[in-house]
Amino acid sequence: MLEKTEMKFDPEEVIEEFEALTKEAGKVQEETLKKILEENGSTVYLQQWGLNGRTDPEIFKACVPLVTHKDLEPYIQRIADGDLSPVLTGKPITTISLSSGTTQGRPKFVPFNDELMESTMQIYKTSFAFRNREFPIENGKALQFIYSSKQFKTKGGLAAGTATTNVYRNAHFKKTMTAMQTPCCSPDEVIFGPDFHQSLYCHLLCGLIFRDKVQVVSSTFAHSIVHAFRTFEQVWEELVADIREGVISSRVTVPSMRSAIMKLVKPDPEQADTIYNKCSGLSNWYGLIPVLFPNARYIYGIMTGSMEPYLKKLRHYAGELPLLSADYGSSEGWIGANVNPKLPPELVTYAVLPNIGYFEFIPLRENLDGLEPTPVGLAEVKLDEEYEIVVTNFAGLYRYRLGDVVKIKGFHNATPELQFICRSNLLLSINIDKNTEKDLQLAVEAAARLLVDEKLEVVDFTSHGNVATDPGHYVVFWELSGEGSDEILQECCNCLDKSFVDAGYVGSRKVNVIGALELRVVKKGTFHKILDHFVGLGGAVSQFKTPRCVGQNNSRLLQILCYDVVKSYFSTAYS
């Protein structure tokens, strides 16, 4: 199928193929599992479960256990370290993706291969075909705020990078974008540039150079689009000057970027005047995007889950332009496409593609007998029920608990349409960062070691993702056994910030999309007040667990904590 990306793209043909697949979703699922097991049955991992060549779903579920990343980590590590035997897949894995989640405080490795790239392009093309029915675009360009991080080599010589980097660096990505008549405005030197701030400036400049051709404004995540236009507010006059003079600002110093942009930019005083007058006429930048790009049809990116807080600002910039939410997947692979593009992001659903993996769903309703609920197949899910997704794919994941909770909102033919509800084990998340209770615990433990010489200890702790500030930031509350010096507590604050090693967090902190972590020290007895509050609500002391993260909606708990703050420190770790 990868070769097909070079052909002319026919949206109606893609929709026909999707309709055929989803009408027979249950049957396609069985065929997909059979194909996965036939290709990978002789692997080290699958051999131990006694399948003996059998590919029946019931046998598969009876023999192969449900797993998390922790269970597969030793196998993935073997591959990353250069083991060439068929560890997880029959064909060798040549690339590793860095998940934006972590395991034991380290970024997670997940396998990436041609099959995952193939399913990525299938998802892209499917959702585009449905979008193009409602919002047709033709011979245009996309202003894509995309940035590729550096790939590095693992111990075994495999290329490793974020999942998006692995996609952008693949030749089929550019071919598919061109076939879908939405090539990126910016040259590769900008996308793959080493400096995020310079790349962003160049993306904005390229967008303005091609402003009449831009039909789509997009990024992987909604917050990147918001961040881009917040930046535009600061640098717009400089951008206008570049267009007027046919030059590029001295703020762009990377030689490859400068030379690539200089090939595109030429003096255009008329265009510069138009942009200047239009921007000057805006009220608080409302409707900025359609003013800059008069032929834009929509704004596109992941807008669900932890991206929802950015929708208000994005709508402000978008004016009347529709916001279309992108597809549903993770570093581990894709799940479904948005085939109802007219739905607002808050209501968006994703139709599962039954041929890109084998999917199971663990009901969240507890069994009356108290036993772990039995996973059901794609054809057995029920409307309005919530489930945790289990994935088996072509890249070496077998009955892998993704950790996502979804709700069945409807069906497209025989395949379910899912609404993303939340991460089942996620604690702190401002945008693309993903930190669990374990990650918080490891960070607190690391910072608390600095207190040992002061003969102090952390009595209790909790956290809060503060999105009321701009940018949002992590707040960690500590109750200490005694009084610590400002110098030591500032060190602790910096250590906490540096101890969150999730790739999404680190990347967001470096570019200030997430603000400096804040350490707030509370009075002695504060956590006892939280216990009293819990008991006052009818809870039993024996069942009390200190909440490790206090959500925005838990206003009483936040009130208790904030009222008792005696000292506050902001991290300078990324300054």
Helix content: 25-40%
Cα Rg = 25 Å
Multimerization status:
single chain
Most strands sheet:
8 strands, antiparallel
Helix and strand content put the structural class at alpha+beta
Lateral arrangement of strands in the main beta sheet: 9-10-11-16-15-14-12-13
Low-confidence stretches: 1-7, 101-105, 538-543
- On the 0 to 100 scale, the average pLDDT is 83
Q: Helix count, per DSSP?
A: 20
How much of the polypeptide forms β-strand, as a percent range?
15-25%
Span of the ends, CA to CA = 47 Å
The total of beta strands comes to 22
Question: What is the gist of this entry?
Answer:
The chain is an alpha+beta fold and 575 residues long. It contains 20 helices and 22 strands. The protein is globular.
Question: How are the elements arranged and paired?
Answer:
Layout: H1 11-23, H2 25-40, H3 44-47, H4 57-63, H5 69-80, E1 95-103, E2 106-112, H6 114-134, E3 141-144, E4 152-153, E5 159-162, H7 163-168, H8 171-179, H9 188-191, H10 196-209, E6 214-221, H11 222-245, H12 255-262, H13 269-280, H14 288-292, E7 298-302, H15 311-318, E8 323-325, E9 328-330, E10 333-337, E11 350-352, E12 358-363, E13 376-377, E14 386-392, E15 400-412, E16 415-423, E17 426-428, E18 435-436, H16 437-448, E19 458-466, E20 473-480, H17 486-499, H18 503-510, E21 518-522, H19 526-536, H20 555-563, E22 565-570
Parallel strand pairs: 1-5, 3-6, 6-7, 7-8, 20-21
Antiparallel strand pairs: 1-2, 4-5, 9-10, 10-11, 11-16, 12-13, 12-14, 14-15, 15-16, 17-18, 19-20, 21-22
Helix pairs in contact: 1-6, 10-11, 11-13, 11-15, 16-17
Protein name: Jasmonic acid-amido synthetase JAR1-like
Pfam families: GH3 (PF03321), GH3_C (PF23572), GH3_M (PF23571)
Domain GH3 C-terminal: 438-552
